[in-house]
Write a structure and sequence with these properties.
about 30% helix; five-stranded mixed beta sheet; alpha+beta
Length: about 250
């Protein structure tokens, strides 16, 4: 006759404790692996954006995409604003060369708030977007930029904002005492993926990007000093500069 021995309560508790310990050890590892995979997929997106930008530049007389706003002028049109339309959003300017709007959302970004013209309401298409372009770069000739492998041209915005562009140095810092910066410079393990002027993409730690109060050399502030952005007529308050980095 075979006698089957059941687990004692102590043995069950020991097994449960071992499982709990293993879970505590492995779950953070799984979370880190998942975050790393998202960061890698995001980097692929940004490389594709960089390739699209390079193709756009090569077919548009070496000009970088232009800034289009209802109020503020652009280097490409310094006297009269272009006006905001779906077609002249920077990501739609390079869309013929990218042909994929899915890459506008970073897997690391859980919000990806879209532009009001692409928010899915009132007949608008829904285009969630994580990436924002550097206004320091807008409307320039590629040959005018000395540090094409150093200056960031596209990066990840804070998901709560729908901004199309960010202005350094102002947008490197919190918008107000209670709201974060436009840029999300620590969204990916203390740093963020960036697309550079020459089209390559790379992750940088926030500490590296902000080691200088102007964000130099990565922010493009040097371009704004060399090629000033046109001032909005009658609106001295609409300045890209910041107390930590004055003009």
């Amino acid at each position: 006759m075979i006698v089957r021995r059941a687990f004692t309560l102590i043995e069950l508790l020991v097994v449960i404790a071992i499982i709990a310990i293993l879970a505590a050890v492995l779950f953070p590892v799984f979370a880190q692996a998942k975050a790393a995979a998202k960061k890698t997929a995001c980097l692929t997106n940004q490389r594709q954006l960089g390739i699209g930008l390079q193709m756009y530049i090569s077919e548009n007389d070496d000009q970088v995409f232009f800034f289009a706003h209802d109020v503020d002028p652009s280097r490409a049109r310094p006297l009269t604003p272009y006006g905001a339309t779906r077609e002249n959003r920077w990501w739609n300017q390079i869309q013929p060369y990218v042909k994929n709007r899915d890459i506008l959302r970073s897997p690391s970004d859980s919000e990806a708030k879209p532009h009001p013209l692409e928010n899915g309401l009132n007949g608008n298409p829904l285009v969630p977007r994580s990436y924002v372009a550097n206004r320091a770069a807008e409307g320039l000739n590629y040959s005018a930029v000395d540090e094409v492998s150093t200056i960031v041209i596209v990066t990840i915005k804070n998901g709560m904002y729908d901004d199309s562009w960010y202005e350094p140095p102002k947008n490197l810092y919190p918008k107000t005492a209670t709201t974060p910066p436009v840029l999300n410079m620590d969204i990916q393990n203390g740093g963020v993926n960036n697309t550079f002027f020459d089209g390559h993409a790379k992750w940088f730690a926030k500490g590296k990007l902000m080691s200088d109060p102007c964000g130099l050399p990565y922010s493009g502030v040097q371009l704004m000093r060399q090629y000033p952005i046109p001032q909005t007529p009658g609106r001295p308050d609409r300045t890209p500069w910041h107390a930590n980095c004055p003009n």
